[in-house]
Amino acid sequence: MNPHDVQERLFQALVSGARAECRTIVREATEAGLDGETMSREVYWSILDTLNTLFRNDQISTLSFQYATRLLRSLVDQAQATYSPRAPRGRTICMFCGLTEADDLAGQLVADLAEADGYDVFFGGGGIANDEILEEVNARRPDILLLFSSGPRDAPNIRGLIDVIRGVNACPSMQIVVGGGIFNRAPGLAEEIGADLWATSPRELLARIEELPAARSERHAAKPSLKLRRFREAA
């Protein structure tokens, strides 16, 4: 079964809130040989991206958008349970995202796929203050900080976070990666705000972060830098 055909059928069922029909479509796709990871990478991600675009352009109603995103989350949860985990890579990703339901769902989808790909993933979702993220980065010393956003209002906050992390030299070997609709729609934005790389899809993202160098052994150190201690005192 072609993932594109599944995507078209499932999209219509999702925006109409047809729960039973959605489950039937997914079951038929699974029986035809599309596994959970393929559904997430090739079907669910594409549908979520389309939903975001249509909703942003006022081409679908709020009700249709919420029918779809809530149903889609349940399908993503079910797919995740069928993933085949790879061998641990010994690399850690800390993830955060924008405030919307769609941002959180996109982040969850990527977090699930990255975990199955062997990464140790910590996904905090949205609404986390930058000082808390900074504390977590300093304490956990991840190899990668991954920030997801679909809306332009999040870009200044992400820029501010990156500026602070660079300014206080928090976890200097950590790579900062961004993703989501805003970075797809604004070429060059990721580089402008200081990210190390960005990607348009989970497949591209996992391929690109696999090529990133592992953080140096100093990432296991727990002591903050003098600049970071001063930032905490001033916050």
Quick summary of this structure?
By secondary structure, this protein is of the alpha/beta class. It has 11 helices and 5 strands, in the order ααααβαβαβαβααβαα. The chain has helices at 3-15, 19-31, 36-56, 62-80, 101-116, 130-140, 155-167, 181-185, 189-192, 202-210, 226-234; strands spanning 92-97, 120-123, 144-148, 175-179, 197-199.
Could you please describe the fold and organization of this structure?
With 235 residues, the protein is of the alpha/beta class. The chain has helices at 3-15, 19-31, 36-56, 62-80, 101-116, 130-140, 155-167, 181-185, 189-192, 202-210, 226-234; strands at residues 92-97, 120-123, 144-148, 175-179, 197-199. A 5-stranded parallel β-sheet has the order 2-1-3-4-5, with helices on both faces. Helix 7 (155-167) links the parallel strand 3 and strand 4. The longest helix has 21 residues, at 36-56. The radius of gyration is 19 Å and the shape is globular. It starts with a helix and ends with a helix. Residues 215-235 have low confidence and may be disordered.
